[in-house]
Amino acid sequence: MSRWHAEYAWLGRPGPAADVLIEVTDGRFTAVTAGVTPAPADATRLAGLTLPGLANAHSHAFHRALRGRTHAERGTFWTWRDRMYEVAARLTPDRYLALARATYAEMALAGITCVGEFHYLHHDADGARYADPNAMGSALVEAAAAAGIRLTLLDTAYLTAGVDGAPLAGPQRRFGDGDAARWAERVDAFAPAGAHVRRGAAIHSVRAVPAGQLPEVVGWARRRHAPLHVHLSEQRAENDACVAYHGKTPTRLLADAGALGPATTAVHATHLTGDDLAALGGSGTGVCLCPTTERDLADGIGPARGLADAGSPLSLGSDSHAVIDMFEEARAVELDERLRTQQRGHFTPDELLGAATAAGHAALGWADAGRIAVGQRADLVTVRLDTARTAGTDPAGAVFAATAADVAHVVVDGRTVVADGRHVSIDVPRALRHAIAEVMR
Fold first, then answer.
1. pLDDT in tens, 237-269
2. Do strands 422-423 and 112-119 pair parallel, antiparallel, or not at all (unpaired)?
3. Which of 177, 319, 325, 336 is the catalytic position?
4. For 346, which of 215, 291, 404, 439 is 20 to 30 Å away at the CA?
5. Is 268 marked active-site?
6. Is 336 tagged catalytic?
7. Residue tagged active-site, from 268, 271, 409, 423
């Protein structure tokens, strides 16, 4: 048994509790007791605010190589995508392993204990399968294990270049399996080892999976009780093309294919009609917001409060990794609503932290994580309250002050991964420098 004594801990009720003794056996919380003073001599002291593990529900690990490299010119999401394709064309399984390992270790430093990897970089640069058809997925599984965090590998169907079924070309060829049946065959052949990983499925977007093949991807996920994720209405151009070709919005197209529901998470959901919002909320479909990427790519501001009120659980992702900071993602949900409405106070700190913790883990298929409670997975993230950013802050409002740099201690499944702000096994800045230099040379 291991014991920690938290100065403050967020236990899922309004405001943090003080002097919380946390006991763990075999990677699970076995006792959580507030108001324990003095701290037991055998308990590790956690000074600051201790939170459940943070969940990053939407990641493209290889995009980390683009940070700070796409701002020299004006443009749109579509011009940024060309730069992204250039990076995708350079990756091999070994390079991907090094880059993902460093990126996931950066996530651990930021308090992320589980990541959902939206994985579509399947094949070699010419589109041919590797000898191991899941070599790139295996690299991601190994990377997460080395970084010390859990992984939901959302194996992504990416079959066409547009809603009209145009074939994949150039770097896109390495994303495709030909059709949904061959995608499912490849995914079924992959049995990743390790208790830290689970499989899920993803539909890249309605432009990348033909309408007639959507049910096959949905069916694969439903039969395996696996999470299903999908990029939805990130760009107006995608909406316009879908309406022009299919006579319906992307949300309606997905609904007609049976893709909506509580096991599904729509990523972005930025440009929705009123009917779209009602369909998502009414079906209990989750929505993963990625505010730092959505603003970096000039995507727009989605209807976060409207989605939550309609019934869609909200989770958070760092997506392109313009930054990796779930506190920034969480408060941006509120702050973007303020910009959109010119009013304050749309989400409480508890709601924002819930999106960053329990809701994110649930979206990734880990319903037993994201809360500091008996029986849950023993994930802990301690945020210092004595830095230049957090000193003097009310712990109840720390989500509006803290950054990833304030994370001091991270425990994943009962194992310490970050101590005193440093990863216990990886020199993260050095690993990132070397991995990115190898990809960009």
1. 999 999 999 999 999 999 999 999 999 999 999
2. unpaired
3. 319
4. 404
5. yes
6. no
7. 268
